[in-house]
Amino acid sequence: xxxxxxxxxxxxxxxxxxxxxxxxxxxxxxxxxxxxxxxxxxxxxxxxxxxxxxxxxxxxxxxxxxxxxxxxxxxxxxxxxxxxxxxxxxxxxxxxxxxxxxxxxxxxxxxxxxxxxxxxxxxxxxxxxxxxxxxxxxxxxxxxxxxxxxxxxxxxxxxxxxxxxxxxxxxxxxxxxxxxxxxxxxxxxxxxxxxxxxxxxxxxxxxxxxxxxxxxxxxxxxxxxxxxxxxxxxxxxxxxxxxxxxxxxxxxxxxxxxxxxxxxxxxxxxxxxxxxxxxxxxxxxxxxxxxxxxxxxxxxxxxxxxxxxxxxxxxxxxxxxxxxxxxxxxxxxxxxxxxxxxxxxxxxxxxxxxxxxxxxxxxxxxxxxxxxxxxxxxxxxxxxxxxxxxxxxxxxxxxxxx
Length: 402
Known about the structure:
The chain is mainly α. It folds into two domains: about 130 residues, no CATH class; about 200 residues, no CATH class. Helices cover about 60% and strands about 0% of the residues. The chain is built from 24 helices and no strands. The radius of gyration is 26 Å and the shape is elongated.
């Protein structure tokens, strides 16, 4: 007996001893009830403790093989299978959002049960300590990280990505690399010049996401340099975006000449992110709404020429843009009925997401408020298209981002 135990590795030995002690203490059968515990934990973490009040939750616990995993009765219930199911089905579940019909109905069911059985509220409070609900709310973002990087396999501890690309999590597209390369508008030689600012306006206002960036010059020292190049372009060049037009480019040159809009380029210390956003927004530059202005200022911030916004300031930006970032917060279940609530929600998400990532990986992925905003936007887009289902399959086949 001693010899056979000595041949076991440490993990196997601990597992067997744990099983023996559990039987000795009359704990529930591990093989039968442990999968139910995994399933229940996912429901609580992702949907909240109130989800356990739904009949479907009890039905799922009792019939994990067939009702949840849609497998046969003899299907082996492994942790990996249940984790995969939770990532696929729960992170975009409508109950997560505070404005969906499903969430409203669940709130009514919970209120009715509590009115009949007041002790239920005590149980809910006990199982939802302060901070735990917020931690559960950011779980979809962690799931999204899991989807886009197949090496995130431990969601209970700090996330570690052993082979995270040194170029950062948000890998730059070929087109954006051209804009940031030497000689481009954001290069060190041009970023604080009129030519650089003019060219950056053209990039964001006209040529972004077009073949033009791969085929033509991206720096224009003057309006005439643009006009000379434009004469050589094909007649169908203007991109098919309603708000973008080459007709705006003379206006962009005028903007680059206005001292009140460009004085920040010559300041010794970087301008505030919000100050620059509001300054450019008030100028009402053609094709530069809230989102395009934000993206323009982000590029200057990443280059170190604008102060990086604090999380609460980012909340103000998301409220003003009223697009994917705000929808992502709402999808996570945060009330965003005002700029104050939005700022608080974004700060909560950014702080808790930062706490769940290791310092090493935050450095590798260039973790910032901009990455958090980007994740919130992708959360909405991926949830709409159900891309995550295909992504999981590709992950298992060795899929990696490029």
